[in-house]
Write a structure and sequence with these properties.
Structural class of chain A: mainly beta
Strand content of chain A: 35-45%
Shape of chain A: globular
Helix content of chain A: 10-25%
Strand content of chain B: 25-35%
Shape of chain B: globular
Oligomer: heterodimer
CATH superfamily of chain B: P-loop containing nucleotide triphosphate hydrolases
Radius of gyration of chain A: 22 Å
Strand order of the largest sheet of chain B: 6-7-8-3-9-10
Number of helices of chain B: 9
Largest sheet of chain A: 16 strands, mixed
Chain lengths: 426, 259
C-alpha cells in the first residue's frame, strides 16, 4: 500500500487524525482536519478499532472499523462502500431497531461426542473468532439473548455431519449468535440450515483449531418474505483447513459476509457460494479473506443464476495479502448467469497485495447471458426449450454443488435448483 | 426415402429501416441421397434459407411452404424440426456456458431419438467420431464451443451431424474460415454421413473450394433472393472460372443493399 500512512503509525498517534499539521492520510490539507466533525474524525474514525486497522489507510479493507459496541458505528445512509448495493429500506429495521423479537429456534443434530451448549454473552467463546465489522452485525451483538456453541472435540474425526437447524417463526426483527469450534485436529462437516420465516441479524463465529479440517455449509432457504443478514467470521489455526460454502436460495433479502482470517501460518481456505435469485430477490455475498499470515492458501468461487424482474445479486470479494503474508497463494472468482431480462448482477473483485513475495494472486469476474441464440442452438439440436434452460443452469451451478463433497447435501441442492427452475417456468 | 420440399418461399426480416424481404420466391426439392450446392454472392439469401429451414425466430415466412415428407415444417418449433430430422450446421456456432460437450451430445441424441442412447456404445461412437474429425478427446469435457477456434467449432458441427444422423443436413458456409487440412477433415465427415445413404444435403457456400471434396449432383445459384440459375456440377466449374459477376450485372444495386 502507500507509504503515506507510516507517518500516522507512530506510537501514540491517533489513527485517522493528522500526525503532521496540515497533512491527512489523503494528502495535503489546507486547514487541519477538525477532530470530531471531519471525515476522518468522530464516530467514523478508527479510534475504537480493536483489530486490523492499525496503520493501514482507510481505503484498505483491513482499515474497516470493528467493534462490539453498536454505538461505535454511525447510522447507515446507504452510501457507505459496504452498503451501497443493499436496499436499506428492505432490511426490516435490522440496522436501526432493537432486535428483540424471538430468534429462530435452534435445534442441533450431532453425534454424541459433539458438545452442544447454550451460553450467555459472558462466555469466553463468544467473541473468540470475530468482532462485528458493520452496524447490523453490531446490532445483533447488542441484542442476542444467548448463544449456541457447538464444539467438535480435539482429534475427533466425524463421518456423520452436524446439522444446526435454525427455524424462524415470524417477522419480528431478531438477533442470533452461533459459535462453531473445531478443536485441534478435529475433522467435521457442519450444516447451518436456515429455514422458516424470519427477520434476523446473525453472527456466526467459526474457530478452526490448529490442523483441524472443517466444512461449513450455510443454507439459506427462507420464506419469500424473510430478511437475513449474517456475518460469518472464520478464524483459521495453524495448518488448518476451512471449506465454507454459502447457498442462498430463499428469502426476500439475504446478505452474507463470510470472512476468513488466518491466525497462524499454513492454513487453507476454500470459500464457495451458490445463489439463485428469482424476481424481486436481493441476494448479496461479500467475502473477505485476510492473509495476515505467511504460507496460506485461499480459493474463492461464487456462482449465481438470476431470473425474473428485479432479481438482484451482489458479490463483492475482498482479498488482502498483508506485508508479512509471504508465500500466499490466493484466487477469487465470481460468475453469474443472467437468464431473463430485468435482472441485475453486481460483481466486484478487490485484491490488495502488500508484498510481492507470493506464490499467486488472481481474481476474475464474468457475467453472461443465456440468450435467444443459446436457446436456438440447443433447440436446433432437438432439445426442448425447458430442457435447454435447465441444462445450462444445472451445468453452471453444478460446479459448486460438486465441491461440497457431502452427497446428501449435493442431492438436496440439485433438487432445490430444479425447484427454482420450475418456479421460473411459471 | 425422404423429400424436403421448398415451394415459392418468401422470407423477410425486421431491420431498423423496416421490414425487408430477403427471399423472394425460392422453390427447391431435395431427396435422400442427393447433394445440392447452393451458391451465390454475399447477401443473396443463402444463409437466410438455411436459418429459415431451421426455424430461427429472426426470419419471418410471409408466404410459401416447407414440407418434410408432406409434413408442414413451418408449423413446427425449432426443436420439433430437429427431431423430425432436419439438421443445420451453423455458420457461427455459439458458445453455450455451463454445458459440457458430453452432456450436450447425450441430451440432444436422447431428444432426437426419443430415448437415451445405450451408454457403452454411445461413448464409443462419440470417441470414434471425434477421432475421425481430429477433435481432441479433452473437448468432450469442455463447455459447448467455449474457447474453440473457428475451425474447431465447424468440426464440432460435423461431429453432431455424424452422431445425430438427420434426414436432411443444411451446411451453412461450413467451409468458411477453414484451412485446407480442416476443410478435408470436415468434408470427409460430410461424405461419410452422406455415404450411409439415408441423408440428403443442402450445401451452402460462397466458394467452389469445398466442391473439390464434396461432389454435388445439383448446383443452384442464388441472386437477390431467388434462384437465378441451376444445373449439374458443371455449373460450379463455370462459377469457378467466371465468378458471380455476370449475375450481379443484371441484379444491380438491389444485391448490394441486401444483407
Amino acid at each position: 500500500m502507500t507509504g503515506i500512512t507510516e507517518e500516522a503509525t507512530k506510537d501514540g498517534a491517533r489513527i485517522g487524525a493528522p500526525s503532521i499539521e496540515g497533512f491527512t492520510e489523503e494528502g495535503e490539507s489546507l486547514s487541519p482536519t477538525p477532530v470530531v466533525t471531519g471525515p476522518l474524525g468522530g464516530a467514523a474514525s478508527k479510534s475504537h478499532s480493536h483489530g486490523g486497522g492499525y496503520g493501514i489507510p482507510d481505503s484498505s479493507r483491513a482499515g474497516r472499523l470493528t467493534s462490539y459496541r453498536l454505538a461505535d458505528f454511525p447510522e447507515l445512509k446507504g452510501t457507505e462502500e459496504e452498503w451501497r448495493f443493499t436496499p436499506l429500506r428492505r432490511l426490516g429495521g435490522l440496522h436501526k431497531d432493537a432486535l428483540d423479537g424471538a430468534a429462530p429456534a435452534v435445534v442441533v443434530e450431532a453425534p454424541e461426542s459433539v458438545r452442544v451448549e447454550t451460553v450467555g454473552r459472558d462466555d469466553s467463546r463468544v467473541g473468540s473468532a470475530g468482532i462485528p465489522e458493520d452496524r447490523v452485525s453490531a446490532n445483533a451483538w447488542a441484542h442476542f439473548a444467548d448463544a449456541t456453541v457447538v464444539t467438535i472435540p480435539a482429534g475427533a474425526e466425524l463421518e456423520e455431519r452436524i446439522s444446526v437447524n435454525l427455524t424462524g417463526a415470524g417477522l419480528a426483527a431478531s438477533a442470533q449468535h452461533v459459535v462453531i469450534v473445531a478443536e485441534e485436529g478435529a475433522r467435521a462437516v457442519v450444516v447451518l440450515n436456515h429455514e422458516g420465516q424470519a427477520v434476523v441479524s446473525e453472527n456466526v463465529e467459526i474457530v478452526v483449531g490448529d490442523r483441524a479440517d472443517l466444512t461449513l455449509v450455510t443454507l439459506q432457504e427462507w420464506t419469500d418474505d424473510s430478511i437475513h443478514v449474517s456475518s460469518q467470521q472464520v478464524k483459521v489455526g495453524r495448518e488448518a483447513k476451512i471449506k465454507h460454502v454459502s447457498v442462498s436460495l430463499g428469502g426476500s433479502l439475504v446478505r452474507l459476509t463470510p470472512t476468513v482470517r488466518f491466525a497462524e501460518p499454513g492454513g487453507e481456505a476454500q470459500v464457495f457460494g451458490l445463489y439463485f435469485a428469482d424476481a424481486g430477490q436481493h441476494l448479496e455475498h461479500r467475502t473477505f479473506v485476510d492473509h495476515a499470515q505467511p504460507n496460506c492458501i485461499s480459493n474463492v468461487l461464487f456462482k449465481g443464476a438470476l431470473q425474473g424482474k428485479d432479481a438482484h445479486t451482489v458479490w463483492v470479494g475482498d482479498v488482502l495479502i498483508q506485508k508479512q503474508a509471504e508465500g500466499t497463494d490466493s484466487y477469487e472468482k465470481n460468475q453469474n448467469l443472467v437468464l431473463t431480462d430485468g435482472c441485475r448482477a453486481d460483481s466486484v473483485p478487490n485484491l490488495e497485495i502488500e508484498t510481492g513475495l507470493i506464490a499467486g494472486a488472481g481474481h476474475a469476474s464474468a457475467t453472461g447471458r443465456f440468450d435467444d441464440e443459446h436457446l436456438f442452438y440447443l433447440m436446433a439440436r432437438g432439445i426442448p426449450e425447458d430442457v435447454a434452460r435447465r441444462l445450462v443452469v444445472r451445468g453452471f451451478l453444478h460446479e459448486i454443488i460438486q465441491k461440497i463433497g457431502v452427497p446428501s447435501i449435493e442431492e438436496h441442492l440439485v433438487e432445490a435448483v430444479e425447484r427454482e427452475l420450475e418456479a421460473g417456468d411459471n | 426415402m425422404s423429400t424436403l420440399e421448398i415451394k415459392d418461399l418468401h422470407v423477410s426480416i425486421e431491420t431498423e429501416q423496416g421490414v425487408k424481404e430477403i427471399l423472394k420466391g425460392v422453390t427447391l426439392t431435395v431427396k435422400t441421397g442427393e447433394t445440392h450446392a447452393i451458391m451465390g454472392p454475399n447477401g443473396s439469401g443463402k444463409s437466410t434459407l438455411a436459418s429459415t429451414i431451421a426455424g430461427h425466430p429472426r426470419y419471418t415466412v410471409t408466404s410459401g411452404t416447407i414440407t418434410l415428407d408432406g409434413e408442414d415444417v413451418l408449423a413446427m418449433s425449432v426443436d420439433e424440426r430437429a427431431r423430425a430430422g432436419l439438421f443445420l450446421a451453423m455458420q457461427y456456432p455459439v458458445e453455450v456456458p455451463g454445458v459440457t460437450m458430453t452432456n450436450f451430445l447425450r441430451t440432444a441424441k436422447t431428444a432426437i431419438d426419443g430415448k437415451a442412447p445405450a451408454i457403452r456404445t454411445w461413448t464409443k461412437e462419440v470417441k470414434e467420431a471425434m477421432a475421425q474429425l481430429r477433435i481432441d478427446a479433452d473437448f468432450a469435457q469442455r463447455n459447448v464451443n467455449e474457447g474453440f477456434s473457428g475451425g474447431e467449432k465447424k468440426r464440432v458441427e460435423i461431429l453432431q451431424l455424424e452422431l445425430f444422423k438427420p434426414k436432411f443436413a443444411v451446411l451453412d458456409e461450413t467451409d468458411s474460415g477453414l484451412d485446407v487440412d480442416a476443410l478435408k477433415v470436415v468434408s470427409e465427415g460430410v461424405n461419410r454421413a452422406q455415404a450411409e445413404g439415408n441423408m440428403g444435403t443442402l450445401l451452402i457456400t460462397h466458394y467452389t473450394r469445398i466442391l473439390r471434396y464434396i461432389k454435388p449432383e445439383f448446383v443452384h445459384v442464388f441472386v437477390d433472393g431467388k434462384i437465378a440459375e441451376q444445373g449439374g456440377p458443371e455449373l460450379a466449374d463455370r462459377l469457378e472460372e467466371e465468378g458471380y459477376d455476370r449475375y450481379l450485372a443484371g441484379a444491380g444495386s438491389a444485391v448490394q443493399a441486401s444483407i
